[in-house]
Amino acid sequence: MKVFVLNCGSSSIKYQLFDMADESVMAKGLVERIGSQKAGVKHTVGSGPNHGAEHSREAPVPNHTAGVKLILDLLVDPRVGVLRSTDEIQAVGHRVVHGAEKISGTCLIDEKVVAVIRENFALGPVHNPPNLAGIEAMMAAMPGAPNVAVFDTAFFTTLPPKAYRYAVPNNWYARYHVRKYGFHGTSHRYVTLAAAELLSKPLDQVNLITVHLGNGCSMTAVAGGKAVDHSMGMTPLDGLVMGTRSGTIDPAVPLFMIGQGLSAQQVDAVLNKQSGLLGLSERSNDMRDLLSAVEAGDERARLAVDMFVYRVVKYIGSYHVILPSVDAVVLTGGIGENSLPIRQAVCRQLSRLGAEFDEARNQAVVAGKAGPITRDGSKLPVWIVPTNEELMIARDTAALTAQLRRP
Ligand code: ADP
Questions:
Q1: Which of 31, 84, 137, 387 is the least buried, fewest Cβ under 10 Å from its Cβ?
Q2: In a shared domain, residues 246 and 380
């Protein structure tokens, strides 16, 4: 089965075409700056006669419909394509960010699911509208193919009320749906499944702390294979220090800054786009840049990195307490998978919980590999497990479509 996976942002479409026979990537790419003069596409071929071909150019892409058309044309292009016809695509999987309380799993997209995605525009204003634009564009371009939605929030529908409610008046929850929803769920679910397998534990018996450290950062407490707490909140702003987001702060700070003359929109933009590593360092949101700056003696960069690690270990400590036991701390995302100094700093800080850092293993588990960075017999193992949200979406899409086909 060939499954096409789309991840539509407000001005971009990321895509991957999978051959599910061996889960190989046939082609992947990115349409970016949709709606601007500088729109364009980057496309890479992973299999077939055009294997290794790369194609990158500027192109007019006024909206998501045009973006989807551009991608489908590339997939059948004799020079950089991998299909004779788009009819070979048997199902399409879409990343959808906000399903709120109504969606607890992967689902075939019908009118009801479209209505739920639309209802949640207010809760996911940055993501749900472009997610839906991609779905509608795909449905129009390939009316015969089933479209499947994989929601970021679905993994967190198992959180108990004591974890997802805020201590605010009931009415805020009942009337305005103010609660923790959680994000990055597809990544946390993927590494949970992968870690259970790597640790040879049945999924319903595995207890983990999964830590996604990318540009956005989040952490999940997993008990018996299910999420029981999570660091992001009603929006992805809460929790860990991120590339440009503040993470947890005193909720009175935005009100104070509004009192100082900023508008609510300005505060929102600062906390989401100019805070975190970027805000602290006044240099970059990229961990690689910050680590080089620390080497060169930059004190702001040092504080940014210290706060990043401090917040991560503080959350791990709190999740350690609420879980019945911890089989492993699992680090993933661009920083978790690649940044050796951050892995080392986190792991060393966990020594009191029984993590015995192994330098040689830290050096060895790189370039997309999975493995522990603690010694054998460590009371608290720390593992690196590369995430793959697109593959998770493709697997879900293939499984659901196969189920539908069964008589
Ligand atoms: P996104 O959340 O946008 O998908 P990624 O998961 O790719 O982001 O993570 C981006 C972060 O990963 C950046 O801070 C980047 O510096 C970091 N990163 C990627 N590769 C490395 C590396 N080799 N060493 C250190 N940090 C890295």
A1: 84
A2: yes
Q: Is 338 in the pocket of ligand 1 (CB under 6 A)?
A: yes
Mutation test residue for ligand 1: of 339, 366, 384, the one with most atoms within 8 Å of CB = 339
Whole-structure pTM value: 0.96
Assess if residue 245 is contained within a domain.
Answer: yes
| CA of residue 216 to ligand 1 center, whole Å | 10
Q: Identify whether residues 138 and 39 lie together within a single domain.
A: yes
Render pLDDT for 227-277 as a digit per residue (tens, 0 to 9). Answer: 999 999 999 999 999 999 999 999 999 999 999 999 999 999 999 999 999
Instruction: Look up the CATH number of the domain holding residue 225.
Output: 3.30.420.40
Distance between CA atoms of residues 290 and 257, nearest Å: 27
Per the domain annotation, does 183 fall within a domain?
Answer: no
Residue 161 inside a domain? The answer is no
333 lines ligand 1 (CB under 6 A): yes
The count of domains in the chain is: 2
> Are the C-beta atoms of 267 and 297 separated by less than 8 Å?
no
- The Cα diameter of the chain in Å comes to 66
C-beta of residue 192 within 8 angstroms of C-beta of residue 221: no
Range of the domain at 233: 201-389
| Per-residue pLDDT band at 406 (split at 50, 70, 90) | confident
Q: Which residues are tagged catalytic?
A: 152
CA of 184 to the centre of ligand 1 (A): 15
Residue finishing a domain among 151, 171, 190 = 151
Closest ligand 1 atom to residue 333 Cα is: 6
47-104, pLDDT tens digit by residue? 989 899 999 999 999 999 999 999 999 999 999 999 999 999 999 999 999 999 989 8
135-147 residues labelled b (16+ CB within 10 A) or e (exposed)? bbbbeeebeebbb
Pairing of strands 40-45, 54-58: antiparallel
